[in-house]
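INPUT
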Amino acid sequence: MRGRIQAWPLSVQCVSTLVVSALVGILSGGATRAAANGLGPQRAGSPRGSLAESHGATDVRLEQALAVWHAEGGAHALRALLDELVRRAPARARVIELGPGRSGRTVLALEVGALGAPGVVVVPATLERPPAQGSDPQVAVDALLGLARACLEASDPTFSGRLERGRLVFVVGARADLLEPALPADRWEVTQNFPVDLDLAARAGGGAYPLAVPEARTLALWLDAHPELFAAAVIGGETIDPADVAIGESSSDAELTKLTREALLAASLAPTDDKAAEWGELAYGCFSRHARLRTGLAVIAFPDGSVFPDGSGPVPSPRIHEQRRAGLAALLDAAPELDFAADARPRPIGDDLWQLDLVLTNVGALATANVVHERERRPRGIEIATPGFELVMGSMRIRGGAYEVVEPRPGEGSARVLRLGDLVAGAEVELRLFVRAPAGADVQVLASAPRAHSGRIYVTPQRER
Amino acid sequence: MPPRPDTRSKALGTALFLASGLAVWSLSGFLLGHGTRAATPSGAGQPVAPAERYHSFDEMRALLEGWRALDPRRVEALVLPASAGGLVPPAIVFGADGPSALPLAERATVLLLGGVDGRSLAGAEAVLRTAHLLLSGLDTLRPDLAFIAVPWASPDGLARAAAGENGDGRDARAVDDDEDGRSDEDGPDDLDGDGQILQLLLEDSQGPYTFSSDRRFLVPAVDGDGPRLVLVPEGRDDDGDGRWNEDGPGGVQYDAHFPAGWKGPGVDGAGGRFPLTDTLARALADMALERRTVFALVFQGNHGGLARPGGTLAAELGSARERATFDALASLFARNTGRSSVEARPLRGAHGGERPGALVDWLHATLGAVAVEVAVWGPDAVGRDGRPVERRLAPVSRTRSGPPPSDEQRRWGRWLDDVRGGLDFANWRPVELGIGRRAWVGGWRERVWLDPPAELLPNALQGIAPFVREVIDGLPRLDIEVLDVRREGELVRVRARAVNRGVFPTGAAPEWATSPWMRDGAVELRFEAPCDEALLAGNTRIDLGVLGGGSAGREGEWLVLAPPGALLVLEAHAPACGTARRELRP
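OUTPUT
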């Protein structure tokens, strides 16, 4: 008995020694590669920041996954790293597969926040310009991963609160060629293969036809299938001011730019003058032009560092992830949001028929849909429903005047709903609804739009005695 | 006197004689038979001719498979993906043999595509007949060309057409055309119970149409016209949204789905959410890209003639640079079919409106291929005597009964009256919808406007296949004319030039290229001496530019030091039409 007890600790000791030694070996090798890439931990003044810099308490598994990612790269290492990030925050993060990429690979993304909520897609600058034009692919993905981790691990409760009603989708696996250089080169460059500026993109070498590159096709179709996304953030590269682009976007996008700039400025990140980078410098057929002109997203690019009033910079920022997180917070706050005024004023019309006068406002910084949505036949419009109760008829008016009749249409199931147009930021509409419900019932009126936070109000119609 | 052979020996000798004779007979018969077979398409005989009628999808597939099985060495099946409705369009690629013939996939390729618009069954039949004609004379075709035939290029739409539906040619993908969250829930119905689904006119103060003076036809309405009308498919408002039959079955119309002048999904989504996201349409594009596509004939449409790229203004301006080529094609078409139009109209002119996303526009703009739409059917295709009719019409003006119909509508009206006795059009008759608006049901019966009636199909196809054959024979073909070879001892003087023996130019001019994939039509004349030091004068490469049909480039002249019998090589090469080679041993 005594001999067995003594043998057991010895074997454990041997095994644990071996394990630790192996770990040390892997970590030191990874650290060497990370240092060679300029991504070593805690390198002060790093212009792009490192994934390791943003972490708090040491997590061995995560560090190991980081080390493998830095040492080997590749889709498998990326997936393992993403799984580790999700493991640390399973309630609010998940790995999603957007669709097929080249050579049987899958385009991966890390989603943070509320499932299906209005949100922002976050992409690396390598979807804007090819590596030959100065964007470092490994650094671009690391910047995205670092920012994702900063968002996941934010201790600021206000940021966490944003993630309970909104979401961020970090598209980390959109350039398979960069993640796995051993893959054969694609015929065409993904940064010029999105279906916008077709003729110009073709002349510039963007491909014989748009979306021929699997990653571009996957991303475009995935964006199309998610109308709840309202903005795109491009991490790295010049700041883009959407208002500079004469494409007929609504004025609320200029408001978005102002809000985002203010947030970035507060974090000492944004350029301090009003002139943004030339839109024309972006390649025809690139992601942000597609996001802007075909999908109707508001697009903001987050620069590589801080710019000073004298125009110098960008200067590497040791707080780059925190600063960019502030920018993402501003973007999340800008989402369209439908809100009912508190005073509903129900009036009896018949035995169980009630007139409800409501005021619905878009309190967000963006319109519920813009001209791109209309031109491109993307989902739009506000839907008014009264779940559980019959919506007999509706009417609406804007800025006084007469109410116009709006006939309810078939909605989901056998319910009837009102379909209204869209509201720009700050706009309101007065609704007059006729609902069949017994007195004293809690009638919920729900307002929803594809990319807006829904609004709801509960009304309890009562007969006056 | 020699002793006489005994009986056994005689019998043996006779047997041997007969046996040897039989052997010689068999061997010679075998050899002759083999040689004979080699002179005709290998296999049992000629390909089965398609019958003089419309073919179903399965019949068409069986025909193509039979042609392939007959001559598997020179006719190969081409695998395409299934449509949204699950139909795999049969396709074949074929070409003649030759001593230095390249594999089919590496040759300059001619595309024969039927019904890309999902509506033209006659176009599908034209591809079948053309393919049959070419296969029947496979040995007489140039061995440097490959041909791809896809009769049902848009199988979902054509399947609905074959079922008698008056559809818009879209594939079977369910699409929410009216953006109400449901797909395909408000399609056409037989409102008046007459067994046909025609069209419905609704009175609408903002309607874009009004009746013309020929009440069968509608014309664009202007202020003051009345009644103003909206034209929709016959049926009820199944989804109760106040719009009529606006969300019928189907998704993408392939001939609006290519990235040429593509402007988005369009008002009704027929262009697709993004260009070439449909798997089968993308496969057709990839097929054209992967092969050296130099010529494409898309058989569809009901304008009765030849249409050049020009679904949008930009495409029209692009093809106008090669106007001579397209007009030469139109002349050939008119001569073979007897139809009177001798010019190739741009697509938007032929169809009376913009056609963004058209395949011929994309093939021409991206690949520099000579691409044309060949409309088997049209009001001038078949007259009362079964022959094409004269196009000239006397001018008409507005009358009290309304504005005049367009010239095209007048031709259709005359065809209806003179050829069909007016039976193929159901006159507009009032119908009660219970919505307080006037409405009429009527329109073309049984797709007669889109495809010829079965009994007129052979007449409509007359001359189409021979036209294609003549076009193929006229494709650019480089040759080298040796003008003079003279030897003075070891010194040899050579004068030669490159010639285009075809009717059509060698390709698109490089300065017109709108994409890096356009085929370069510039010809280069090359001279190869026994060694570099042997060439005493003259350039090894002379750039001749694009050579027009039947034209020669400027002469090249060389002085070379070459012993008698030394090999001198002349080549004329253009990426769009291959290489001609001549060897000299002066």
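end of record. Chain B touches chain A at residues 179-181, 239-241, 258-259, 262, 264-265, 269, 273-277, 282, 285, 289, 314, 362, 365-367, 514-517 (CB under 8 Å).
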